[in-house]
Design a protein that fits this description.
The complex is a heterodimer of chains A (358) and B (253).
Chain A: E1 6-11, H1 15-25, E2 27-33, E3 41-45, E4 71-78, E5 83-86, E6 96-102, H2 103-117, H3 123-130, E7 132-137, H4 149-152, E8 164-168, E9 172-177, H5 180-186, H6 197-213, H7 225-231, H8 237-244, H9 250-253, E10 261-267, E11 273-280, E12 290-291, E13 295-296, H10 301-313, H11 315-320, H12 330-334, H13 341-357
Helix pairs in contact in A: 7-13, 8-10
Chain B: E1 4-9, H1 15-21, H2 25-30, E2 35-38, E3 52-56, H3 64-74, E4 77-81, H4 83-87, H5 99-107, E5 130-132, H6 139-150, H7 162-168, H8 174-178, H9 194-197, H10 214-223, H11 228-252
Parallel strand pairs in B: 1-2, 1-3, 3-4, 4-5
Classes of the chains: A alpha+beta (358), B alpha/beta (253).
The structure holds iron/sulfur cluster (5 copies).
């Protein structure tokens, strides 16, 4: 574990004070409850401090839209003058603060930052990411039966990628301040004092207890996943999945590490000019791999599902030594056809053992 | 020169034309780039010469056909306007019965007075350049199409399902949350998932996607508690024509 720069505590009853104060420092995004019938949450821009809900199972959409909006203008063009202008490469925007993000989502942001820096850097994404403060929350158990963060090692925070980490230690939150920016986010607020010895003891106890709460859900060697993918390339499991999948695209749209987008043009009413913008896309949709001339590289749902899984646990592992699956379980929760990531990974592992035995 | 635009209506509720009129503030800026020459809902004068024809409604009478062909031969761009026109839409519910049965049900002993039969989408008779799907059609798409046609560039509707837009809006999925039977996964999006966003299921008014997994969808609806009859009714509301073709194709495989 990386030592924090400084420790503080905050009584739970004072969270509202801090949230309200943070709203003055930047645009605050935090989880709010969305459904009365059973727990569903969403990261939203907070305008009422009371709506923030820190005791949440994971959110429907990941917090990535705070950094990469669903729709973003790339260039403005003028058809008459035959010119175009790039939209701001480094968007001027207020500090954004993502509040109460789980550790798996912090890992996912680190992954996105790695990919966006690679090759042709996505400067707009990186600029927004740099001016986004991350106030994370250590989890004390799996969100629900779909999560498997412990198996992917993401129930523990990464070494970097956050400013502050909170831990629920009963009547108060224990805060680990990890960056220079973190100090500015608590300032000398009287409700966030330095820790006493007792708080530190309680916090260490809580960390130890939490560890025990997380059961191992994927009992395969995840380091071998790229090889398992290879071995199962022609496995009939993909046919079964392809038959069930209805290509709704949800599994990728809710994934915190997916980043594919489509580019479209929109003319102004005057027809003189317009804008080119990008919008989130999904590799599960029939048109995604279609190219000019009516060729489609992945016409079958089976192939598209296999591609998705390889994009999570094979290719990025080979290229960056990182998994693009952080085990958050959102894809499994969103899938109306009940296709479960945990099942897929288990099957990949199990079937590969069979291959090895015979 | 501004392209001349005409609106025509066959078997329909004329709701799509009303939707165009509902544009209000944007209607005036639209008139800067097009000239409307035939629009029964709004103007009386008619011109027999036009570039873009918006054809609303299904074809349900033999006498409709020559009229439709005339429109096709006159217009440079022909647009199927709304789901009645694009896929026979809600009108195709009657196609489950023989024409005389349905007519007797509706018109009783005066059934012989009216000429009406099975409802068909207009592309069963003429080539359609663009489709504006939906019941009613989507106003933003209508504007996009007018802009594209007026500047001579192709109009494209991304073939995304309703679920995509539903997810991107951050909606709670009503199928998962409340077992409300929703066709969003197999229906062409573009409406910004307006129905699920307000707690109503998608009933497929924009048409089933061409490569939709119909069998998989039926299977998962059953898992969410739907009976076969409910599934059939759900599909039949706007997609009777499409689905009967699809199931026939599946059976022949
Ligand atoms: S693949 Fe699924 S479980 Fe893995 S990070 Fe993406 S949404 Fe979460
Ligand atoms: S969420 Fe499920 S049904 Fe939808 S594309 Fe993904 S795997 Fe297929
Ligand atoms: S598509 Fe719907 S709104 Fe449009 S004409 Fe037909 S029934 Fe009316
Ligand atoms: S509510 Fe309907 S459209 Fe929305 S995600 Fe669920 S199934 Fe798809
Ligand atoms: S959600 Fe479905 S029923 Fe509603 S407007 Fe869109 S396509 Fe039509």
């Amino acid at each position: 574990m990386v030592e924090a720069m400084e420790y503080r505590v905050l009584l739970k009853k004072d969270i509202r004070v801090w949230v309200e104060w943070l709203m003055g420092k930047g645009e605050l995004h935090a989880p709010v409850a969305k459904s009365a019938s059973h727990p569903q949450y969403q990261f939203e821009k907070i305008s009422q401090p009371d709506t923030v809900c820190l005791d949440y199972a994971t959110t429907i959409l990941p917090p990535k839209q705070c950094v990469q909006p669903v729709r973003e203008t790339l260039i403005r063009f003028d058809r008459v003058a035959n010119q175009f202008t790039l939209s701001d490469q480094v968007p001027e925007r207020r500090l954004h603060i993502i509040f109460g993000i789980h550790t798996c989502d912090i890992h996912a942001f680190n992954f996105l930052n790695t990919v966006m820096r690679d090759g042709n850097a996505d400067t707009q994404f990186l600029a927004r990411s740099a001016n986004t403060a991350i106030i994370g929350l250590r989890c004390r158990q799996h969100c629900d039966d779909k999560s498997f963060c412990e198996s992917m090692g993401t129930n523990e925070p990464p070494d970097t990628g956050y400013d502050i980490l909170m831990t629920d230690i009963g009547d108060r939150y224990f805060l680990e301040l990890a960056t220079e920016r973190a100090a500015k986010l608590v300032d000398d607020l009287s409700c966030i004092p330095h820790t006493g010895d007792e708080d530190v003891v309680k916090w260490r106890q809580m960390l130890a207890d939490s560890k025990k709460n997380f059961d191992r859900r994927l009992s395969i060697n995840i380091e071998e996943l790229p090889a398992y993918c290879e071995a199962n390339y022609h496995s009939p499991m993909w046919d079964v999945i392809g038959k069930k999948c209805v290509a709704c695209g949800s599994c990728t749209l809710v994934c915190p590490t997916c980043y594919c987008f489509d580019i479209r043009d929109e003319l102004d009413m005057s027809l003189q000019g317009g804008e080119r913008y990008r919008v989130w896309d999904s590799c599960q949709l029939g048109e995604f791999a279609a190219v000019a001339g009516g060729v489609n590289f992945r016409r079958d749902r089976r192939d598209r599902q296999r591609h998705r899984v390889h994009r999570k646990v094979k290719y990025p592992k080979e290229r960056y030594n990182l998994f693009a699956c952080v085990g958050c379980g959102r894809c499994s929760r969103a899938c109306i056809a009940d296709i479960q990531m945990l099942d897929i990974l288990r099957q990949l592992g199990a079937k590969s053992h069979e291959f090895q035995r015979t | 020169m501004k392209p001349k635009v005409a609106f025509f209506s066959f078997s329909s509720c004329e709701g799509c034309q009303l939707q165009a009129l509902n544009l209000e503030d944007q209607l005036l800026s639209l008139l800067d780039i097009i000239e409307i020459v035939n629009f029964r809902e709004a103007i009386d004068d008619k011109l027999e010469n036009y570039d873009i024809a918006f054809v609303e409604g299904s074809i349900s009478r033999y006498s409709d056909i020559p009229e439709l062909i005339k429109i096709r031969n006159t217009a440079k761009v022909l647009v199927a306007f709304g789901s009645c026109s694009s896929q026979a839409g809600i009108n195709a519910i009657r196609n489950r019965l023989r024409p005389e049965e349905a007519n007797a049900m509706v018109y009783g002993d005066r059934a012989a007075w009216v000429e009406t039969g099975h409802a068909k989408g207009i592309d069963e008779f003429v080539k359609v350049d663009y489709y504006l799907n939906g019941c009613p059609m989507d106003r933003r798409e209508f504007i996009r199409l007018v802009k594209a046609a007026a500047s001579g560039i192709p109009f494209i509707i991304p073939k995304l399902p309703v679920c995509t837009e539903c997810k991107l809006r951050g909606n709670v999925c009503i199928l998962e949350d409340r077992n409300t039977l929703c066709l969003g996964a197999v229906t062409l999006g573009g409406c910004n998932a307006i129905c699920p966003a307000y707690g109503h299921p998608c009933v497929g008014c924009r048409g089933i996607l061409p490569d939709a997994n119909i069998e998989g969808m039926a299977e998962l609806l059953r898992h969410h508690g739907a009976s076969d009859l409910e599934i059939e009714h759900l599909y039949a509301m706007y997609n009777y024509g499409r689905i009967s073709l699809l199931t026939a194709r599946a059976a022949s495989r």
